[in-house]
């Protein structure tokens, strides 16, 4: 990887992304490729409306609060 930040006291366990509304698959795929190249373990991506796509693309954590609890409004 070209642009790598090295901090001795920081241990990164994973990556997280919230893509723009719309087709999230290309964004999830790109983050999975970055995770694979960097060697970190976790990939947190996907929310209530796109968690199935996120899981298909390799997410190990999803955020589905609205799907479980409903809207906050």
Question: Mind explaining what this structure looks like?
Answer:
By secondary structure, the chain is α/β, with parallel strands linked by helices. It has one domain. Helices cover 34% and strands 18% of the residues. It contains three helices and three strands, in the order E-H-E-H-E-H. It is globular.
Number of strands: 3
Whole-number total of structural domains: 1
Strand order of the largest sheet: 1-2-3
β-sheet strand percentage: 15-25%
Structural class: alpha/beta
In short:
The chain is built from 3 helices and 3 strands, in the order E-H-E-H-E-H.
Secondary-structure blueprint of this entry?
Layout: E1 14-17, H1 25-38, E2 42-47, H2 51-56, E3 61-63, H3 65-69
Parallel strand pairs: 1-2, 2-3
Name a few traits of the molecule.
73 residues, alpha/beta, three-stranded parallel beta sheet, 3 helices, 3 strands, 34% helix
